[in-house]
Amino acid sequence: MLRSILLSRDESTVRIITRAFKDLEVEAHHCPDASRALSEVSANRYDAIVVDDEIEDAHIMLEKVLELPSCSKSVRIALAQPTAKMHAIFKTGTQIILYKPLSAERVRHGLRAVRNLMARERRRGASRVHTMLPARMSSRNAKGGVRQVFIADLSDSGAALSYENGPVPPGNVSLEFSLPGNPERVHCTAELVWQDNEGSAGVRFVDMPTYARKQLSEWLKENAGSTSAEVMAKHAGNPA
Asked: Do domains 2-117 and 128-235 have the same CATH topology?
């Protein structure tokens, strides 16, 4: 069974993260202080290390974790406020940032990123289809306006994005894309839930027209089990 360790003193955070990992069939071990957590990861192997940035020595632990052979393959996750300096967090060796405020739904969505980095893939809820659909994304916090991204993983609740040119500012973003075989554009608002240090991010759909949700649901059912190549073959001729 996959194992994770959580460094946090917030009861709500511990409850939400622990339950989310349980749903993913991942054992969760909780430590309230950095020194104890560091001792744990030094002596035992954990597939995921989750650190709350409200812990005073959180950044020190993340840096020291990089030096431990037992943590060489561990996924390092930080829980951070949207105002946190992303570049500084990634410099500590963090691979994924989950943004606060935490909720059960947002955390479950965010931890789907971890499934690809940990030893196995866990699926819950709606069908997901691996794709590489071109899309346009814009953010109120972004200075560069509209940027080109690719949707690498799509479900009726959200999507995983692949992009270049630096991290995406936290908050809501606008997405515009078309489904393979359907020239009609989908316009929606999505919330940035997580992002990593390799140009990937996860968003949760928060506002999508009814017609678009219906089209997406039908498309997911039709393409369940399809490979990314098969999906993209259908998308030929549908530019972003």
From this structure: no
pLDDT tens figures, 147-168:
899 998 888 888 889 998 778 8
CA distance 194 to 98: 5
Q: Residue 134: what pLDDT?
A: 92
The H-assigned helical ranges of 118-223 are 210-223
* The pairing of beta strand 185-196 with beta strand 75-80: unpaired
- pLDDT of residue 83 exceeding 80: no
Find the helix or strand (DSSP H, E) in which 192 lies.
strand 185-196
Output b/e per residue, 18-37; b: 16+ Cβ within 10 A.
bebbeebebebebbeebeeb
Domain 2-117 has CATH 3.30.565.10: no
Which of 48, 31, 32 lies closest to 40, judged by CA? Answer: 31
163: its two tokens: 């992009």
CA-to-CA distance for 205 and 239, rounded, in angstroms?
22
- Rounded Cα–Cα distance for residues 131 and 150 (Å): 9
Q: Is the dihedral of CA 145, 151, 154, 160 positive or negative?
A: negative
Q: How far, in Å, CA of 46 to CA of 23, rounded?
A: 17
Average pLDDT of the residues of the chain: 81
Domain layout of the chain by residue ranges:
2-117, 128-235
Asked whether 133 and 235 are in contact (CB, 8 A), the reply is yes
Token digits for 142?
């972004």
What architecture is the 128-235 domain classified under in CATH?
A: Beta Barrel (2.40)
Q: Where residue 126 falls among pLDDT bands split at 50, 70, 90? A: very low
